[in-house]
Amino acid sequence: MERIYSGKTKDVFLRDDGNILLKFKDTVTGTGDVIDAGSNTVIGEVSGKGNASLRLTVYFFDLLQKAGMPTHFISTGPEPNTLLVKRAKSFKLEVVCREKAWGSFIRRYGAYIKEGTPLPSVIEFTLKDDEREDPPINEESLVALGIVTEDQIRYMKESARKATAILKAHLAEKGLDLIDIKYEFGEVDGQTIIIDEISGDGMRVVKDGKVLLQKELAAALLGE
Q1: Nearest Cα to 48, choosing from 72, 77, 27, 21?
Q2: Residue 38 — very low, low, confident or very high, per pLDDT cuts 50/70/90?
Q3: What percentage of the chain has pLDDT greater than the value 90?
Q4: In this predicted structure, what is the pLDDT of residue 39?
Q5: 3-state class of 155 per DSSP?
Q6: Which of 84, 87, 137, 196 shows its CA 20 to 30 Å from the CA of 61?
């Protein structure tokens, strides 16, 4: 098994059977000593965080697949904190679906909207480019640069909104409020699908006015 990528919060291994093994790490990102999943800087480790990421990802992928949404998820992996998935060609994009104004949305548009104001499942695209701090990109530029096609953009927007509606409704049943969430898409056997992970590293969920960290979200949702 060959490690083909080492990221901020997980390592990626290519298995002999052609599938991918994702190994979740306890590392956290943030600024200074404040943990922020949207940051590109690793600031330390939190014991058990990788396991929380794994369990949440399995839980959310299972919800989507039961709703008929294709993903690259296969099963949990043979080693601790690992996930077995189909190998995909990543578009190296983050597709963000915003249910409320928060975070970078407020930093950009705070003169026009207050934090916490509901949004109509607003979709934004950002490049996965740490060196350039994941810059936002519009749909016409995505097509002009040959990153994705118009049909792929349409599918990603529809799928992100559908997935968000499913997860938001499920979280609400647990007394949890989904603020925003980001997805990664890629191609598997010519089909555009959701890939990578779906966990607290890529979403904001609020309970009693507080944004939950990864392990807090796992405890609140999975009852552990």
Answers
A1: 27
A2: low
A3: 79
A4: 67
A5: helix
A6: 137
Same domain, 201 and 125: yes
Containing H/E element for 218?
Answer: helix 214-222
Total domains in the fold of the chain = 2
3 state SS of 203:
strand
pTM of the model: 0.93
* Residue 159 belongs to domain with CATH number: 3.30.470.20
- In this structure, the answer to whether residues 104 and 201 fall within a common structural domain is yes
Q: Which residues contact 8 (CB under 8 A, 6 or more apart)?
A: 27, 29, 40, 42
**Last residue in a domain, options 65, 85, 105:** 85
The pairing of beta strand 93-100 with beta strand 118-127 = antiparallel
Are 102 and 202 found together in one domain?
Answer: yes
What is the C-alpha separation between 83 and 198, in angstroms, rounded? 12
Q: Which domain holds residue 27?
A: 2-85
Q: Which of 85, 110, 141 is the last residue of a domain?
A: 85
Predicted pLDDT of residue 224? 65
Helix (H) or strand (E) holding 172: helix 150-173
Residue type present at position 162: K
Scored b (16 or more CB within 10 A) or e, 30-50 reads beeeebbbbbbeeeeeeeebb
Residue 95 sits in the same domain as residue 29: no
- How many residues are there in the chain? 224
- Kindly state whether residues 26 and 135 are assigned to the same domain: no
Instruction: Let me know: does 96 contact 108? Beta carbons within 8 Å.
Output: no
